[in-house]
């Protein structure tokens, strides 16, 4: 349901379907609609109070002049519910706005919290490239479950297909539970297969992922890290947590993310991807080698950046990161 919603919106996106948030990042009817749908389904299936930490809220949708986009979101949500057929219900605009706002939890170290990025990689979504719908479950501040839906990710390795499959064989669902490994399933419902991160031990044979947008990660720094590590392949730049999914099945061996100064990472940008990679045998840390801490609320307080690779390459990668940061640091 959620996947067909995103794909239908992506194909028929109107200029009026895109807004800008206060931080200048785009948000679409797909972001809002996906969050409303997933929130509604969680409410229906859990049948109890639950905590949801999600990216969007209805603040901008309740402003004057937003009625048209609210009605379009509501229409699309109800179309998805009707088409799916699992729930015999029609939501009002207020129902949809309330469903969006059920994601206002702050999270934390106590109890269970669902963590949602309804459309991760909105700019990729707008370009028709990679994006992900990312849902995770925290229990006591630890990620215990993660699901990554990547509708445009080729079923075969990105190293073979590139971002776009020549046969249009795309659409991957990654899911992982703590202690249970990571699985990938085609979105057509075919059988799931267990996946593992790359076993590459020689950095010269490794390839690395980074953010498509230079505004999201310092490409000059990641280039220096790759150079010091001895990586020869050019970076693979794609949007969203699809990078985590691709890494979990061994498409590449390294993911580097170093946001510009002042940016604070959000838990919904990494929770699902983190467990998908770690359960596939990978390691996810900050630039100092510390594991990501999802127990502090909506934000991740990481040291400088986030690095992801396999266990054999991590010591070498940490050393290259340390040397590169030292070289880039302004001299006193």
CATH topology of the domain at 203-328: D-Maltodextrin-Binding Protein, domain 2
- From the N-terminal CA to the C-terminal CA, the straight-line distance is 55 Å
Q: Which runs of at least 5 residues are low in confidence (pLDDT < 50)? A: none
Helix content: 25-40%
Radius of gyration: 19 Å
The amount of beta strand, in percent, is: 15-25%
Which CATH architecture of the domain at 203-328 is right? 3-Layer(aba) Sandwich
How many DSSP E strands?
Answer: 16
Strand adjacency order, main sheet: 3-4-5-6-7-8-9
How is this structure best summarized?
This protein is 32% helix and 24% strand.
Would you kindly provide a written description of the structure presented here, covering whatever features stand out?
This protein is α+β, with helices and mostly antiparallel strands and 332 residues long. Among the domains are: 105 residues, Fructose-1,6-Bisphosphatase, Chain A, domain 1 (2-Layer Sandwich), CATH 3.30.540.10; 126 residues, D-Maltodextrin-Binding Protein, domain 2. It is 32% helix and 24% strand. The chain is built from ten helices and 16 strands. Strand 10, helix 7 and strand 11 form a beta-alpha-beta unit. The termini are far apart. The model has no long low-confidence stretch (mean pLDDT 91).
Give a topology summary.
Layout: H1 2-11, E1 18-20, E2 26-28, H2 29-46, E3 52-54, H3 67-84, H4 93-101, E4 112-120, H5 122-127, E5 132-139, E6 142-154, H6 158-161, E7 170-177, E8 182-186, E9 193-195, E10 208-211, H7 219-229, E11 236-238, H8 242-248, E12 254-257, E13 265-266, H9 271-278, E14 282-286, E15 299-300, E16 306-310, H10 314-328
Helix pairs in contact: 1-2, 2-3, 2-4, 7-10, 8-9
């Amino acid at each position: 349901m959620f996947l067909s919603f995103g794909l239908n919106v992506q194909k028929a996106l109107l200029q009026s379907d895109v807004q800008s948030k206060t931080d200048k990042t785009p948000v679409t009817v797909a972001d809002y609609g996906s969050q409303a749908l997933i929130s509604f389904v969680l409410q229906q299936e859990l049948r109890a109070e639950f905590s949801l930490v999600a990216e969007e809220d209805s603040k901008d949708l309740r402003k004057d002049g937003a009625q048209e986009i609210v009605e379009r979101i509501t229409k699309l949500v109800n179309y998805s519910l009707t088409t799916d057929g699992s729930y015999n219900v029609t939501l009002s605009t207020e129902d949809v706005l309330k469903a969006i706002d059920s994601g206002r939890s702050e999270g934390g170290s106590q109890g269970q919290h669902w963590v949602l990025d309804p459309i991760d990689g909105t700019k990729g979504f707008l370009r028709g490239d990679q994006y992900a719908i990312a849902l995770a479950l925290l229990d006591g501040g630890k990620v215990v479950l993660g699901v990554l839906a990547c509708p445009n990710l080729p079923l075969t390795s990105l190293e073979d297909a590139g971002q776009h499959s020549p046969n249009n064989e795309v659409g991957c669902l990654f899911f992982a539970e703590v202690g249970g490994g990571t699985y990938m399933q085609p979105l057509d419902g075919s059988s799931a297969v267990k996946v593992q991160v790359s076993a590459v031990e020689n950095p010269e044979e490794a390839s690395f992922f980074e953010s498509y947008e230079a505004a999201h990660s310092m490409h000059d720094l990641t280039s220096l890290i790759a150079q010091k590590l001895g990586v020869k392949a050019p970076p693979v730049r794609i949007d969203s947590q699809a990078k985590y999914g691709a890494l979990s099945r061994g498409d590449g061996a390294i993911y580097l993310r170093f946001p510009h100064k002042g940016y604070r990472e959000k838990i919904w940008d990494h929770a699902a991807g983190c467990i998908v990679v770690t359960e596939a045998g990978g390691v996810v840390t900050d630039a100092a080698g510390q594991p990501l801490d999802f127990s502090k609320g909506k934000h991740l307080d990481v040291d400088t950046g986030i690095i992801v690779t396999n266990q054999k390459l991590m010591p070498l990668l940490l050393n290259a990161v340390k040397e590169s940061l030292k070289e880039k640091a302004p001299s006193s």
